[in-house]
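Entry 12.
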Amino acid sequence: MTDQLKAELLELAVEAAERAGTFLRDGRPEDLGVAATKTSAVDVVTEMDIASEKLITGFLADRRPDDGFLGEEGASVTGSSGVQWVIDPIDGTVNYLYGRPAWAVSIAARKDGETLVGVVHVPMQGETFRAALGDGAHVNERELRVGTAPTFAQTLLGTGFGYLEERRVRQAEVVGKLIPQVRDIRRGGSAAIDLCDVAYGRLDAYYERGLNPWDFAAGDLIAREAGALVGGRPGDGPSEELTVAAPPGLFELLQGKLEELGAWHD
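Predicted 3D structure (tokens):
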């Protein structure tokens, strides 16, 4: 029953994510980036975010009416089936606002608290990352396997920054101490894509403080199914406090350095 359920949930998640991605790509005003600093432009993105979430929840509720929902834009339904959909209708909204391609639709399905499937659809890259628990991870038709752990000095490290000024200042301090120790640091603007990039090998490792469940739920499973380790502070899973993803060997080293630097607090 679990294999059948996973297959059903994954198929629905892929279709819902791709429908929302098409809506967002085709419905984005061409001049949105020109007015990116104007309140009206931000309002349009907010409206697109809300509309994308409604499209996803409506599609899924039609097919599985007893499931619950947790979404960035306020979707909160308990449900009675034990399955909960965790949805980020636009992960990377600032990128979307400015017309940068690194934004995604992220959908995960949990049952009794365990993530069974995860999908991250990146419309502007033509990529759909997907994973089912125990069945590996794929992007389109390609199987994903995390890269071999490099030395810390050769690590291409991804991260992100929060919106609050105090948090960003603290995050910059941590980055400043890490930069001399690694190959380089990237800030892509979408946690879901960053986690998938670890799975793909486009990043050696990734960490961030301040993520919500909808930011990492799908990408977490995709990275783990590709062979990465994903966690938070030592002994903890990924959380708002800290999320870390890397191949075995590098993960433990990065996690330890982040703990020493206090990357988990503002």
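Annotation: The chain has a mean pLDDT of 94. DSSP finds seven helices and 13 strands in the chain.
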